[in-house]
Amino acid sequence: MQLTKQTDYAFRLLMYLACLPKDQRANIQQVCTFYDISSNHVAKVVVKLVKLGYITAFRGKGGGLMLARDPARIRLDEVVKDFETSLKPVNCETPMCAIFAGCQLKAILFDGMQQFLSTLSQHTLADITDKRLAQVVKVR
Amino acid sequence: MQLTKQTDYAFRLLMYLACLPKDQRANIQQVCTFYDISSNHVAKVVVKLVKLGYITAFRGKGGGLMLARDPARIRLDEVVKDFETSLKPVNCETPMCAIFAGCQLKAILFDGMQQFLSTLSQHTLADITDKRLAQVVKVR
Fold this sequence. Notes:
Two copies of one chain form a homodimer.
Chain A lengths: L4 H15 L8 H8 L3 H13 L3 E4 L5 E4 L8 H8 L21 H17 L3 H4 L2 H9 L1
Antiparallel strand pairs in A: 1-2
Helix pairs in contact in A: 1-3, 1-4, 4-5
């Protein structure tokens, strides 16, 4: 039971950008090299992060990516909700499961997922991008 | 963020078998036809369920599958732990993530997963296989 690569990369990108000194921008290649991940996957995530208003992409010379929102206002559960394809732990409806009508398992699994999201909702991007992380990002 | 097909099918199989009248057995084909799922996938799950002691497979005439344990003693989190390939919501170590040392996100995600499992641990197979489910299984 894992988050998709999309969500994973969205978190990595946001954390990287949150660590940059004020007004500094990063380009996709920098982020990909830093994390040693494919630029194809990251490019798609960047497009979505821009579209959803998490980050801004500046074009041309001196361009690059930077956070568009205050990290203290980006709750971790929001990122998961925005990037996961499904938050239903099981797929009961496509195709429809034969026991759907009488099944109580799905409600328990969905309740469990709510607990997962609730844990994340208690933290923001600012909480997880402290000096220690900034140092790791900067050092490399 | 979804459970694997293996875990999903393990639950379906266990729920089906828990609904059978006492001493009745079911064969794989019956279960596959009931749920309209591929017997290839289900066969692998059956092998694992037998190996882990959840069910017993009787061979020959009058053979078939039946629960090997009291459903009231099969906690739902156990099934997830036994069947999921990974319970780490992100893969930080293969390959090693560049921010592993300073990253606080992983601890929050793992805490969230513990909350998910903790919710499931409050329920057993017996809790989710009541008369209503038995009726759905029997009717078809």
